[in-house]
Design brief:
The chain is built from 22 helices and 35 strands. By secondary structure, the protein is of the alpha/beta class. It has a 5-stranded mixed beta sheet with strand order 5-6-7-2-12, covered by helices on one side.
């Protein structure tokens, strides 16, 4: 049983200086650091319709302040110790603003403005008063009473006490009767003294031990996907979104609660934690919840800051069923409520989490269910309506409050305007309702599979956001498209390497000669030919020559160890390699035939090549690094490459483009560089050095007049730091492969507004790029740079574990589809079947999706971002 409060042995009503409670002390310290803020204000309006006795109302408010010492308390430090100082009763000011002369529209607007102004007005904790009433006269028979107090002297329960006493006292005073209320047995200062006396020794240790066990190893506060980067110091500006649960859903949830021996609070909290898990991907999360902390009858009629915060932890790491999660929440909640006497401030002091000015300790998301009804507002001769005032502030990232009333359950989300837009919070509320509906229907469903999207959201994610079909030469092969460029502009420069230049006609002839030699050596459809050359014109000719035979080329970077090259050739069952003099030794193995890229033409020049190259044939095989397991070769089709570089909406290349070839030939981005230039009539420019420094690369970009460039994220950051001026001549710059640094992006966007900077994302298994995002100035305020929308003739689905689309804002696995999907992993049928799965959304038979394994989310503007 809880111990009954005994009044401390001090002259409570004679003295006027008392220690602050732990909760008061926290708010006082916060005010010392940032005075003048209104985010701990609580304000309401009470509309009074009828003939109001203003004198009786003023006497009523004065009596409430006389009865409750908390409302005439101020705060200071005495000899370095924070204290509360109770002032003697001195009446109450009730300013009156007469708006009755205004027309109806202006009157309503002015009343709202004054109410917001009052709610947002700062309090001086040292001077007071910390309870501020104000009266507005709208008409002779209509008034609005504004009540505003600082949380250091009152909480939500206290407002209910004020409302109750307001009605009783006004009724008596308006009739000329004395106060009907008995004198209070205790005051808030008594509680503050008692609280400090009790939280010592064994009692304090027992409370601390339970909480430190419960929160041992707790993660950083939940971080919901935000619309903007978190500022170094919050402004505490906030807004509110209000909604309701559908009628009947509350009864279903109550029935589920009874069946699981849980309270409605536990069920609603479990739903909220499940949604947070789905929206953040965090398996271990902590949510704050306020409790009234009035465990004794003597405390119930008092005004004061009693409310305590509990940190409730949830474990969803094993993707439990909702029923299992509810059982865990029940156990955690019962334990926390049994140890609710420990002030939150003492818990934070004990755990000593890493403190930061940009967020609250332990948790940034708060959940509450208000079940106690407000006392009925009844005053003689008046009709009353109470409305909370939104002060435009938010103390936490998100405070989610549900309230039971006669019509069911209403919800209120107070959110930090620094982080969130209204559309995101509105969407979050919608997903919460959808999740609860699913839980009510099937509480045994796993949390990870609970549907969150409604019909319209599914349609948007599947159809609207993937309507990417665009005309392009879908059935053409790479050699056929290159031949078109040769016919159109045979004398245009195709490739540059240092001082050497070759035209399209010269490159065509060189590739033709090599292709005939390759065919004579056995290259053809269904075979793979290694290409182990230094970067340069010979490499471009070799790639083209292999494709003309109907075979697939396999880049073999000569910088790799010979053992790795030998393994790749054996795994791919490749017996033929095109090499140059500098690289031949790296692939000189038994059973391997080496053709030199610049060797003599011994084949029959008049004999035409008979290879019939199709768009669905393999064009190249690229091996992974093997960092996540055994290396595997990905077979990419001609169609995948053509869809990547021809008619691409993200970077439309043309004959006047000069594209730098800087990527390692063993990376799939090299295919974008080579074929992006050669299939669009542009010029492919190799750096004269095989491993240039950043300075040497920058010099080449300027000297060669490069217009289009691809850089890995790491190299992009390095160039921005060391040689940013080298980017000034570019038209387009694609960067990706990892997360882009927003500060680096900002420097480029601000310095080179003409430059089209694109964040590119995509696995090799979907032919280099799946999504692209042309970066805009407004992206710089985001927490991260999005990876964008699917490029033309590609699809991107964000799916849950049951392969159902998730709506915007909810992370899921990215499945890449469309014409870029590779054939699979060479000679790995089982792994291919695991990662390349049937496309349930496609209308074309046999269409497949590639499971990227990457977790992303759609934003509200139909762009993907990392999760």
């Amino acid at each position: 049983m809880q111990q009954t409060i005994s009044l401390p042995d001090i002259p409570v009503h004679g003295a006027n200086v008392f220690p602050q409670s732990f909760a008061q002390q926290r708010l006082w310290f916060m005010d010392q650091m940032e005075p003048g803020h209104a985010y701990y204000n609580a304000a309401v309006t009470i509309t009074l319709q009828g003939l109001l006795d203003v004198d009786a109302l003023r006497r009523t408010l004065a009596e409430i302040v006389r009865r409750h010492e908390a409302l005439r308390t101020v705060f200071a430090a005495v000899d370095g110790t924070p204290v509360q100082i109770v002032r003697p009763p001195a009446g109450v000011e009730l300013p009156l603003a007469d708006l009755s002369s205004l027309d109806a529209e202006a009157r309503a607007a002015e009343a709202e403005r004054l109410a917001r102004e009052e709610a947002a007005g700062p309090f001086d904790l040292a001077r007071g008063p910390l309870f501020r009433p104000r009266l507005l006269r709208l008409a002779e028979d209509e008034h609005v009473l504004i009540l505003c107090l600082h949380h250091i002297v009152g909480d939500g329960w206290s407002l209910g006490v004020i409302f109750g006493e307001l009605c009783e006292l006004y009724g008596a005073f308006s009739r000329g009767e004395p106060s009907p209320l008995p004198e209070l047995e205790a005051q808030y200062a008594d509680f503050a003294v008692w609280q400090r006396e009790q939280l010592e020794g064994d009692a304090l240790r027992a409370q601390l031990e339970w909480w430190t066990r419960a929160l041992a190893g707790a993660p950083a506060p939940v971080t919901l996907p935000a619309d903007r980067a978190r500022p170094p110091r919050p402004s505490y500006k906030g807004a509110v979104h209000v909604f309701r649960l559908p009628r009947g859903l509350d009864d279903q949830l109550r029935a589920l609660s009874r069946a699981e021996s849980a309270t409605l609070f536990m069920t609603l909290l479990a739903g909220w934690q499940a949604l947070l898990h789905r929206c953040t991907g965090q398996d271990d999360l902590v949510v704050g919840t306020p409790i009234a902390n009035r465990t004794e009858a003597e405390l119930e009629p008092l005004i004061g800051f009693f409310v305590n915060m509990l940190a409730l932890r949830a474990d969803l790491g094993d993707d439990p069923s909702f029923r299992t999660l509810l059982g865990r929440v029940r156990q955690t909640t019962l334990g926390a409520f049994a140890h609710q006497d420990l002030p939150f401030e003492k818990l934070v002091e004990e755990l000593a989490p890493e403190r930061s000015l940009d967020r609250q300790p332990l948790f940034g998301v708060v959940f509450a269910l208000q079940t106690a009804p407000w006392p009925p507002l009844q005053m003689p001769g008046l009709r009353l309506r109470m409305d909370p005032i939104d002060p435009g502030t938010a103390r936490y990232d998100l405070t989610f409050t549900l309230r039971e009333d006669a019509d069911g359950i209403g919800g209120r989300m107070e959110y930090a305007a620094d982080l969130f837009d209204e559309v995101s919070v509105r969407r979050l509320a919608r997903h919460y309702v959808r999740l609860l509906e699913a839980v009510a229907s099937d509480p045994d469903a796993r949390v990870g599979t609970l549907p969150l999207a409604d019909v319209e959201e599914v349609r948007a994610a599947v159809e609207l956001w993937n309507a990417t079909a665009r005309p392009y030469p879908r059935d053409a092969s790479i050699p056929a498209l290159f031949a078109e460029q040769v016919r159109n502009a045979p004398e245009s420069v195709a490739v540059v390497h240092g001082d050497e230049r070759v035209t399209y006609a010269q490159l065509d002839a060189r590739a033709e000669r090599l292709a005939r030699r390759l065919r004579a050596a056995g290259a053809g459809p269904g075979t793979r030919v290694g290409v182990c050359t230094m970067r340069g014109i010979g490499m471009a000719a070799a790639w083209l020559a292999v494709l003309r035979t109907g075979a697939a080329y396999m880049p073999l970077p000569p910088t790799l160890p010979p053992e790795r090259l030998a393994w790749m050739l054996a795994d791919a069952e490749a017996r033929l390699v095109v090499a140059d003099a500098e690289s031949a030794d790296a692939v000189a193995n038994e059973g391997i035939t080496i053709l030199f890229a610049d060797g003599a033409d011994a084949a029959d020049r008049d004999r035409p090549l008979s290879a019939d190259v199709g768009a669905e044939d393999a064009a190249y095989v690229v091996y992974t690094s093997g960092s996540t397991g055994r290396p595997k070769g990905t077979e990419v089709t001609h169609r995948g490459i053509v869809r990547l570089v021809c008619g691409a909406d993200y970077a439309q290349l043309g004959p006047d483009d000069r594209v730098a070839q800087l990527a390692n030939p063993g990376f799939d981005t090299a295919a974008w560089e080579v074929w992006g230039a050669l299939l669009n009539g542009g010029t492919l420019v190799f750096h004269p050095l095989q491993s240039p420094t950043v300075e040497e690369m920058a010099a080449m970009l300027r000297a060669a007049g490069i217009t289009s460039l691809w850089l890995t994220s790491g190299l992009f950051h390095q160039v921005v730091d060391e040689q940013p001026e080298a980017l000034g001549g570019l038209r387009r710059l694609l960067a990706g492969g990892d997360v882009l640094s927003p500060p680096h992006v900002a420097r480029v966007v601000e310095r080179f507004p003409h430059l089209r900077l694109i964040n590119g994302y995509g696995p090799t298994e979907n032919s280099t790029f799946t999504t692209c995002h042309p970066i805009r100035p407004e992206d710089l305020a985001r927490p991260s740079i999005p990876v964008g929308r699917p490029i033309a003739n590609s699809t991107a689905y964000v799916l849950d574990p049951a392969m159902r689309p998730v709506p915007a804002g909810v992370p899921g696995e990215l499945y890449a589809g469309g014409d870029g999907v590779a054939l699979g992993y060479l000679r790995r049928p089982r792994l291919t079947a695991e990662r390349f799965v049937p496309d349930p959304f496609a209308t074309e038979p046999g269409a497949r999706l590639y499971r990227t394994g990457d977790r992303v989310r759609w934003t509200e503007v139909r762009e993907c971002e990392g999760a």
